[in-house]
Specification:
The complex is a heterodimer. Chain A is of the alpha/beta class. Chain A folds into three domains: about 230 residues, Rossmann fold; about 180 residues, 3-Layer(aba) Sandwich (Rossmann fold); about 70 residues, no CATH class. Chain A contains 17 helices and 22 strands. In chain A, strand 11 and strand 12 form a beta hairpin. The model of chain A has no long low-confidence stretch (mean pLDDT about 85). Chain B is mainly α. Chain B starts with a helix and ends with a helix. The relative contact order of chain B is 0.20. The C terminus of chain B is likely disordered. The chains are: A alpha/beta, B mainly alpha. Chains A and B meet through helix 10, helix 11 and strand 18 of A and helix 9 and helix 10 of B.
């Protein structure tokens, strides 16, 4: 047996009967960079949380340096020499670097020796070339430096194994290269790095070994040196991509309705999440946007509907420039409809009744209101009609939306957004958390809108669902469109490569 | 039957008030006075006596308007602690208009003085609204701090530029009687402010319930993301709602000047703006209940003096009881009706009735079935 610092045997984790991890075996050699590759929902993060003691596995065994261990809490994981760097940093912004490291540091008792900590930090920082001043306040540091602080925190606790959860998703492109350098230095210093990613180029660049996960199982284990990106991509998407296409009817798409050019959008943290996306959707066309979650899809959708102001670029609807128009103007005058990703926090007011939620989009316009007065009877008639036609199961239209199932909530949102007779329909992750019946209802609605000559932008991480409805599929990775395919061109290998960030160079 | 439970539940602030009075009777006993006698004097003095009622109504006017100034922004999720300052600014603007504008016919001058007060309060309320909406500053802290500015500004003006020459105390010249608010109970101080307050409460009720503006405010208050998503211009709404709230507080100040004091005094408000917060919670944020809540709270305050005179009980006891009322009402509003649980309990009771037999079942059966 090789020198395995960490090995997993038959690890399973169940959430309410759902197997998030299903018999995972894995062994990680000491002093290597080990990548864990997989799509959304493959179980990567669950696995890391098991290793870090946040979750307890129902089955299986973890061995650390050959000895079976039970990791019951993050604190215990740290004493065992396992450190984790979360995707969202766990730092107190108003404290200095040294103070952040001192927080919760074991063995301090009641005394606080910041000078000793700062001196040791400066040493570590120098050793790894991190260039961090221990006395700097965290909020003044750029994101990439904060990540180094997180790494220093873990190194300070003498972690032997350092786990990174999607470490590059928060970084700017110029920070990624130096981060990867940091990983190499960690390896050179004899530490073991475990990092979760879906980006193939990063795996190729630094990893020694790669474990590919799919649906909670390990689907492949490889030496990176003995494989290539295309092979990894195929194994990441794994299954033969199924063409379970609905009979959409033959419609020749018309003129372009939605045109997005060179759109650059920053996210809430000021990082460019969309980096120059150009796409156009024609009347009677469904453009699917595929990609792993968090690659700029949400920012793209929000910029198109007006919830985020783009940094540059333009959005045209029916040749009218709406780039700086308000949400209200886009919705009412340019007839843009939007089914948002987050039903509970964006798409609905949970404490409102079904009828009130039904008028949420158009309550300022006839027939829902006249002269500023809500036409309660019309609203109720409309709501009653919609819940019947869209098959929203409920007890009555005065029932609070909170008490509807996710599928019925989604049907209500679709009814509202579609019945307003939009020109453009943006749909974001519409099938998330829905059962098969509700998914089919959603897809039928989308296809009916296509037949009615609407321009539909269908953003999803569920490849099969996109293939079912889309005429063309644009793949996004790291804020860019890496390629555009028709459903017939989609192969496991090509789409996996595009999702992993290997460009085919195209605009949709 | 479940409807009855629901109804009793809706009245929970009333039960809370009764509970507070019962607990308060313990305090009165400790002070060595008969609780029934004390409460009797209190309520007779506040509500049953002509002059006492007038005194209650005088206090109801500012307390009700301040209550509305708290209720409105709370519907959009903003807590306006600044009604006190808005009252002071309203009084300042109104007094300045009354004293310095050229002579005009009363039908023109009086509305102008009243609206000047609304404008003063409105602008004062709009400042924290603007900083909240566009710069994310905490409106609670801003409105609290702006109270101090407004109170001291009025103290300065009433004791400086506007002070009556030779006055022993900081107050302005007297406003001419043609600008005084009409009296609604002859021979008393009860002025028309309370009528306008009740009218505004009704208007606010209908606006919040039936207008698109009310719907937009509720949407912002319940889920601001959904409001933005639906295309509601959230920031302008926040500024606007704080302007209107401030204007309501400003009206309260204007009515104090034009209806009661006839001058601008320094420190003229004994905290009406803060009573408004109590009213908002007593009324469970429903404007239609605000007049009742304000009337009740004013009655406690007005009656306390009568009670003190009649029984020798310290009026601090009444302040303690007011505190109890607030605590009990706040707690009662935290209760949630679990309709399912009650329905299950009632079904259980019916099963019990069927099993052991219920004497009243025969007559009551139809009614019970009808309400189910």
């Amino acid at each position: 047996m090789a020198d395995n610092v960490l090995s997993l045997h038959g690890i399973s984790k169940l959430f309410a009967g759902f197997r998030a991890l299903d018999g995972v075996d894995m062994s990680i050699s000491r002093g290597t960079v080990h990548a864990i590759l997989g799509e959304n929902g493959a179980g990567k993060t669950t696995l890391m949380n098991v290793l870090f003691g946040l979750y307890q596995p129902e089955e299986g065994e973890i061995r650390l340096n050959g000895k079976p261990v039970r990791i019951s809490s993050p604190r215990q994981a740290m004493t065992m020499g396992i450190g984790m760097i979360h995707q969202h940093f766990m730092l107190v912004d108003s404290l200095t670097v040294a103070e952040n490291v001192a927080l919760g540091l074991p063995g301090q008792g009641l005394s606080l020796d910041l000078d000793r900590i700062a001196a040791r930090l400066a040493e570590l920082s120098h050793e790894y070339g991190f260039d961090i001043d221990p006395h700097e306040v965290v909020w003044k540091l750029p994101i990439g430096m904060r990540q180094r602080v997180e790494i220093l925190k873990v190194l300070f606790r003498d972690a032997e194994v350092v786990i990174f959860d999607e470490p590059t998703s928060v970084l700017a492109p110029n920070e990624i290269a130096s981060f990867l350098d940091g990983l190499r230095r960690l390896r050179a210093a004899g530490r073991t790095v475990l990092f979760i990613t879906h980006k193939l180029d990063e795996v190729e660049a630094v990893a020694d070994d790669v474990t590919i996960m799919q649906h909670g199982k390990v689907s492949a284990r490889m030496k990176v040196a003995q494989t290539d990106a295309r092979d990894m991509a195929r194994k990441m998407v794994g299954r033969e991509v199924v063409h379970d296409r609905m009979d959409k009817g033959d419609i020749a798409p018309g003129a372009p309705i939605l045109q997005v050019s060179d759109l650059v959008v920053e996210d809430a943290r000021g990082i460019e999440a969309v980096k120059g996306v150009t796409l156009s959707v024609r009347a009677g066309e469904v453009l699917g946007v595929a990609g792993v979650d968090g690659n700029g899809q949400a920012e793209l959708a929000n910029a198109i509907v007006g919830l985020l102001a783009p940094k540059s670029g333009s959005v045209l609807v029916d040749d009218a420039d709406v780039t700086s128009a308000s949400v209200h103007v886009r919705r009412q005058r340019h007839r843009v409809s939007y089914v948002p990703e987050d039903r509970h926090h964006t798409g609905l007011v949970l404490d409102f009744s079904i009828a009130q939620n039904a008028m949420l989009r158009d309550f300022t316009a006839a027939p829902f209101s006249r002269g500023g007065v809500v036409q309660t009877r019309t609203v109720r008639e409309k709501a009653t009609d919609w819940v019947r036609r869209y098959d929203v199961r409920m007890r009555g239209i005065d029932q609070k939306v909170r008490f509807l199932s996710g599928g019925n909530q989604q049907k209500l949102i679709f009814a509202r957004e579609v019945e307003s007779d939009p020109r453009v329909l943006i749909v974001m992750q519409p099938t998330k958390g829905l059962d098969v019946g509700a998914i089919e209802a959603v897809q039928r609605t989308v296809i009916a809108e296509r037949a009615a000559g609407k321009a539909v932008l269908y953003i999803s991480t569920e490849l099969e669902h996109i293939l079912t409805v889309a005429d063309r599929i644009a793949v996004m990775c790291a804020g860019e469109i890496t390629g555009v395919l028709t459903p017939d061109e989609v192969t496991t290998e090509r789409i996996g490569a595009l999702m992993g960030g290997l460009h085919e160079g195209a605009e949709a | 039957m479940t409807n009855l439970v629901r109804y009793l539940f809706l009245l929970r602030p009333v039960w809370a008030v009764l509970m507070a009075l019962i607990v308060g009777s313990g305090l009165i006993l400790l002070a060595g006075v008969s609780p029934l006698g004390a409460y009797g004097e209190l309520f007779r003095g506040a509500f049953l006596d002509y002059w006492g009622l007038a005194g209650t109504l005088v206090k109801t006017s500012p307390i009700l308007l301040a209550g509305l100034a708290v209720i409105l922004p709370l519907r959009a999720g903003l807590l306006n602690i600044g009604a006190e300052g808005q009252i002071y600014m309203g009084a300042l603007f109104s007094a300045a208009a009354a004293l310095y504008l050229p002579q005009m016919p009363t039908f023109l001058a009086l509305p102008i003085c009243v609206l000047a007060g609304a404008l003063g309060g409105g602008l004062w309320g709009m400042i924290p609204g603007y900083f909240k909406a566009y710069h994310g500053l905490n409106e609670v802290i801003l409105t609290i701090l702006m109270n101090f500015i407004a109170i001291n500004l009025v103290s300065y003006v009433a004791g400086g530029p506007m002070m009556q020459a030779g006055a022993p105390y900081p107050y302005s010249e007297e406003i001419r009687p043609s600008l005084w608010l009409p009296i609604i109970l002859p021979q008393t101080d009860a002025h028309a402010g309370v009528v306008i307050g009740v009218a505004l409460a009704m208007i606010m009720y209908f606006v919040l319930r039936y207008s698109t503006t009310g719907f937009a405010l509720d949407t912002i208050g319940r889920n601001v993301n959904a409001a933005r998503y639906a295309g509601v211009p959230v920031r302008p709404y926040l500024v606007g709602v704080m302007f209107v709230a401030g204007a309501l507080g400003g009206l309260a100040g204007a009515f104090e000047v034009l209806g009661v004091k006839y001058r601008l005094y320094h420190h003229f408000s004994p905290g009406f703006g803060f009573d408004g917060i109590v009213v908002a919670f007593l009324a469970a944020l429903n404007p239609i209940l605000a007049p009742l809540a304000a009337f009740f709270l004013s009655g406690l305050k007005a009656g306390a003096l009568v009670m003190q005179r009649a029984t020798g009980l310290e009026s601090t006891v009444i302040e303690a009881i007011q505190g109890l009322v607030i605590i009990f009402v706040a707690a009662s509003l935290g209760l949630k009706l679990d309709a399912e649980k009650w329905a299950a309990r009632l079904r259980g009771r019916e099963r019990l009735d069927r099993a052991v037999g219920d004497t009243f079942r025969k007559q009551g059966a139809k009614d019970a079935d009808a309400t189910e």
